[in-house]
Amino acid sequence: MAVDSKWLPISRAEILPKVLEGLQQRFIYSDEIGDVLSAALYEPCNLLLWGPGGHGKSDMVLAALRAIGLTDDEIFIQSFGEGMSEDRLWGGPDMASLDTCVRYDTSRSFLAPQYKVVIFEELFDAPAQALLPLKDVLTRRVFMNGPDRVPMHAKVVIACTNKDPRDFVEGNDAVQALMERFLLQKEVRWPQYEEKNYRELFAKVHPNASAAGYEFQRLLSRVIAGLNEEAFTMSPRMALQSLEVVANCARIRGDNLITADAFQSIRFVQGMQSYTADLSRKIEKQLPSGAIKLKLEASDLRDASEDPLRTPRAEIPTVISKSLKSRYIHCDEIIQVLTHAFYQPCNVLLWGPGGHGKSDMVMTALRKLGYGEEEIFLQSFGEGMSEDRLWGGPDISKLDECLEYDTDRSFLPYEMVVLEEILDASSQALLPLKDVLTRRTFMNGSRPVPMKSKVIIACTNKDPREFAKDSDAIKALLERFPLQLEVRWPSYVQSDYEALFAKSQPDASSDKRKLQRIYAHVIASLNDEREAGFKVSPRIALGGLRLAVNSVGRHGRKRMIVEDILTIRNVQGMESYKRDVESLIRSALLEGGIEVLLSDIDERAIKLRGEMDAINAKFDAARTFEGEARSEMNDLAIEAMIELISSVDRLRMELVQIVVTDPKLIQWKKLSEKNVEELADEIEAGT
To answer: Residue 223: which H helix or E strand, with range?
Structure first.
């Protein structure tokens, strides 16, 4: 069989040694991968690489291709997935020919003549509508674009997937037929995940480590190997990010010292959120007893460049700490993860229940780092998020020629990007986003647009662990956020809410502080009475407090009563509360809000006195009527009088339930009792 040996810039004899050399510089256990890659290039034929994520399948392919002299312009990379369409596979519609027939702009697809090698990522996640026509083209090496024949110039197609093809090929004819077009297939994973394996990996990254750096790598390798268990194995990518994060702890300290606490930063690494064991305890268990002090040198740090952001690196920890601690409580971990993200810099995912101020904390930190509102790109995702909107919308001036986007209106030109509710978006938007976050370039038609974003912070109320199980698009995207943190309070008790109110109103008077204490007690009690999982969030708590204070002012009262606290029922998030909120609040006030109950009784006693005057007026009016009209008026007055007596009896019962020991409250209670008894005497005299 004739073989085209001229398509590569090197001779066939050089392929294997060049590929092995390119891989051995960066990867371990790469000889077998290098061998099968060289076989695919030597033949040439298609290759499928599969195995668990985080092992650098695509990175190894690119390293091998560059080692044999191929340029990025000669390599086509595309991500497949649930949202992959035939439209996108063939380059999108040719706008200029739409008035005559449906054609595709194949110059933007893998069929373009400049491409020699094609890399398809997560190929087998795509729907059959995309896989079946691809199988035909890989077989015949020709695509019928309307009436035109478009030849496929690429010699080798390399598919990479995190899935085991043996698990999902059965019963899926489209996948089975496509797999037959990949002559070579190889699983990519390490043979072992032990301390020595991770040490070998770290040695590739820092081959000239100092004595302290070597000891640091040894300790970290031991910790990582100790964390591995049957249901969890730390991938090479996670291990390298752990190395980066822990080493950065030394730089953040300012003295380049690695201490035992630094190893706890591993919990921020992507993928550690699914770790079920006591992570802190297991990390400590792997470390030697006694103090750890290892002074790193420049050769032990992967990125020694200074000041990648507007704020000097040395100032970032202090700036973020001061900006958040002055406004938020329980923010130590988010301070740490944001410091790491800006220090490195790298992307970070913040997730957790709504109402905890994730976006607010991020925006506060960014402003303090020197970025104005107009310099921060903020975009909300959701089910309606489209690829169109992601890249800034179509460039109208070019629509008659080709489909290009106005990328100046997208996140690509911004250094700082905040993406909210990112996990709500569809696969059609997430797949191209993952590609751009990986390659840091967006192909706008045939024009490459560089991504200038240094830090992308994604915020979501959803638990990514649940979404990653069901969506490969989301799972792949999550791997592009090396740091991840769940944002929630460690506890939701009275002292937490009091601390929150104190941060929001640092100059509050002693009377306001007392009201805040009572309100905090009520909210904490509501948490205890609700089914598992419900907690009054900081946003609900602050909104409820504002409403209660406003209610006092709106009604011209000097003291807060139960009705004011009940305004929390109108705050977003409380509408799903199934229990009788009023009875729960009154019960809570008996334990920690007697002042509000006494104020409430006094206020209601005043209202009842007014109702008694209205009833007497009805009796007086009845005397002016005759016959049936007089009877009806008297009946109404008697009915109101019975209700009034019942209301007074309720006040008496509530006073009996109130038990106080504070002298001031004892005096107040006695005065309230006196007022209620006087009212009761007046009602009795009136009847």
So the answer is: helix 211-227
Structure tokens belonging to residue 523: 């909210």
- What is the spatial distance between Cα 451 and Cα 374, in angstroms, rounded to a whole number? 18
Lookup: tokens for 295 = 């002074």
The answer for residues whose C-beta is within 8 angstroms of residue 449's C-beta and 6 or more apart is 407, 412, 441, 442, 443
Return the SS3 of 145.
strand
Which CATH number applies to 336-486: 3.20.20.190, 2.115.10.20, 3.90.220.20, 3.40.50.300? 3.40.50.300
Between the CA atoms of 417, 419, 420 and 424, what dihedral angle is there, to the nearest 10 degrees? 180
Beta strands in 355-444 (DSSP E): 376-380, 416-420, 441-444
Distance in Å from the first CA to the final CA of the chain: 116
Which CATH code, of 3.30.365.10, 1.10.645.10, 3.40.50.10610, 3.40.50.300, is assigned to 12-187?
3.40.50.300
Handedness of CA 262, 284, 274, 27 (dihedral sign): positive
Q: What is the block-wise mean pLDDT of the chain (687 residues), using blocks of 10 residues?
A: 72 95 94 96 95 92 96 90 78 68 84 95 81 90 91 95 78 77 94 96 93 96 93 92 94 92 94 80 91 91 75 93 95 96 94 93 96 94 82 71 81 95 82 85 83 95 78 77 94 92 88 84 79 79 89 85 84 68 80 82 86 82 82 84 86 86 85 88 75
Distance CA 466, CA 463 (A): 6
Output phi, psi for 55, to 5 deg: -105, 5
CATH 1.10.8 fits 489-579, yes or no: yes
One-letter amino acid identity for 619? F
Q: How many Cβ atoms from other residues are within 10 Å of residue 185's Cβ?
A: 14
Domains 12-187 and 336-486 are alike in CATH topology: yes
Sheet holding 184-187, edge to edge: 75-79, 117-121, 156-161, 47-50, 184-187
Kind of pairing, strands 441-444 and 148-151? unpaired
DSSP state of 417: E
Give me the CATH topology for the region 598-686.
Answer: Methane Monooxygenase Hydroxylase; Chain G, domain 1 (1.20.58)
Q: How far apart are CA 156 and CA 680, in angstroms?
A: 96
Sign, CA torsion 112/118/122/123: positive
Residue 666 has a CB neighbour count (10 Å cut-off) of 11
CA atoms of 39 and 30, how far apart (whole Å): 14
Amino acid at residue number 509: S
Q: What is the dihedral of CA 426, 432, 438, 439, to 10 degrees?
A: -170
Which pair of tokens denotes residue 204? 């590739």
Instruction: Please give the torsion angle defined by the CA atoms of residues 22, 24, 30 and 35, in that order, rounded to the nearest 10 degrees.
Output: 50
The DSSP annotation for 617-647 comes to: HHHHHHTTS-HHHHHHHHHHHHHHHHHHHHH
- Domain locations along the chain: 12-187, 195-300, 336-486, 489-579, 598-686
- d(CA 188, CA 237) in angstroms, rounded, equals 13
The amino acid occupying position 407 is: T
